[in-house]
Amino acid sequence: MKNKLSQLRDEFLRQLTEVKDEITLRELELKYLSRKGELGVLLRSLKDLSVDSRQAAGTMANEIKQELQDKFQEALKLFSARQTKNIPIDVTLPGAKMAFGHLHPITLIQNELEDLFTSLGFMILDGPELESDYYNFTALNVPASHPARDMQDTFYIDKKNKDGEYDLLLRTQTSPMQIRAMQKYGAPLKLIVPGRCFRNEATDARHEHTFYQMEGLVVAKDINFANLKSFLEIVGQKLFGPATKLRMRPKFFPFVEPGNNGEYTCFLCQGKGCRVCKNTGWLEIVGAGLVHPSVLEAGGLDPEVYSGLAFGFGLTRLAMLKYGINDVRFFQSGDLKFLEQF
Ligand code: FA5
Predict the structure, then answer these.
(1) Which residues form the Aminoacyl-transfer RNA synthetases class-II family profile domain (predicted)?
(2) In this structure, which topology does domain 105-339 adopt according to CATH?
(3) Nearest-5° angle of CA 178, CA 180, CA 186?
């Protein structure tokens, strides 16, 4: 039996050296290694041997079986690799299209404004999205009992501080960075803060629970309303073209005094009145004003010495206007059909 086994092994290995392709290799497998193949027949005949010879021959047979199977697998791998390499390539076919990523429309607007403001000497700051009640409201002149709290509801973190109050929230605006920046850098100061904000809103085509704003703050001696107006004019002309006009109408924001809404002539109808501007000829784009003395104080600056201007854009709404998007909810929908248009 041992002789037969070793002859079979040698024969298999010899024939393996002559195999030229996968088909003959498979034939060899069938002949020797399949259930009804020569090795299988020998293995089944082991039962006819005496107990002693069966044990010795059985061990040998199993070792040979393993060896031949390994050799077969090795050869198979070699042929498969060669076969893949040998697939003919039709060089006249068009190439596979590469998929490129691209910037989100809000990032495009953000980049455009960042370029403008850095060219005017502003620094760009990032701030925490998880804010304290103090920075988001109280330090911005909106104490706990103030009715202006109703203007911006948000999502509170379900964890009380040591005084038993819920004081962590998702920021409703980028304005808290006004205070943080004054505390950290003092004055003079020129900065913008692009970033994500959150509000507890009933969402509709113009309101999202998550959206982007860009804050601007300038603090120095003798900052006045004319400085604010000129910055806002530059921004409007950069965004909507050199003929764009600005008008400023009073609006209440607790952290500026006086506060106003900056409106630009509609880029689509040039102020004549159309669907985009609801026939007014003007687009409400930016909240702005001169920094309230209490806010300067909260930032650690003396309002008798320093003054400041601040403004805040809704980047999401700007992107809607600029790209003619009629529903704010598209931005975060993850819908590729929407995103691929930019
Ligand atoms: C503010 O948030 C002020 N912090 C802006 C400001 C800064 C005023 C500095 C004065 C000085 P307001 O709540 O109006 O203001 O929001 C500013 C802009 O954010 C809005 O004009 C709008 O474009 C955008 N915005 C507000 N809520 C939403 C929302 N739910 N979805 C999409 N955009 C929103």
Answers:
(1) 109-321
(2) BirA Bifunctional Protein; domain 2 (3.30.930)
(3) 85
Scanning the structure block, which residue is given the tokens 């103030």?
146
Q: Is the CB of 253 under 6 A from ligand 1?
A: yes
Residue 220, token pair as written in the block? 């120095």
* Residue that is written with structure tokens 């900065």 in the block: 191
Is 113 or 57 the better-scoring residue by pLDDT?
Answer: 113
DSSP H or E run through 244: none
Q: Are 186 and 301 spatial neighbours (Cβ–Cβ below 8 Å)?
A: yes
Give strand ranges (E) for 171-296. 189-198, 210-220, 246-250, 256-265, 282-291
Residue 75's φ and ψ, nearest 5 degrees, are -65, -40
What pLDDT was estimated at residue 168?
96
Answer yes or no: is the C-beta of 263 below 6 A from any ligand 1 atom: no
> What is the Å distance from ligand 1's center to 215 Cα?
10
Residue in 100, 103, 102, 109 with CA at minimum distance from that of residue 323: 109
Chain segment 40-63, per-residue pLDDT in tens: 898 888 888 888 888 888 888 899
**Residue 146 DSSP code:** -
Q: Ligand 1 mean position to 251 CA, how many Å?
A: 12
- Backbone angles phi and psi of 42, in degrees to 5: -60, -40
Q: Whose CA is nearest to atom 25 of ligand 1?
A: 314
257 is in an annotated binding site: yes
Which protein residue has the closest C-alpha to ligand 1 atom 5?
A: 312
Q: Residue 128 and residue 132: Cα distance in Å, rounded?
A: 9
Residue spans per domain, the chain? 2-86, 105-339
Contacts of 261 (CB under 8 A, 6+ apart): 248, 249, 250, 251, 284, 286, 287, 288
CA end-to-end distance (rounded Å), the chain: 76
Kindly state if the Cβ of 178 falls inside 6 Å of ligand 1: no
Q: Which residue, 34, 41, 32, is CA-closest to 14?
A: 32
User: Exposure string (b/e) for 293-321, b if CB count within 10 Å is 16 or more?
Assistant: bbbbebbebeeeebbbbbbbbbbbbbbbb
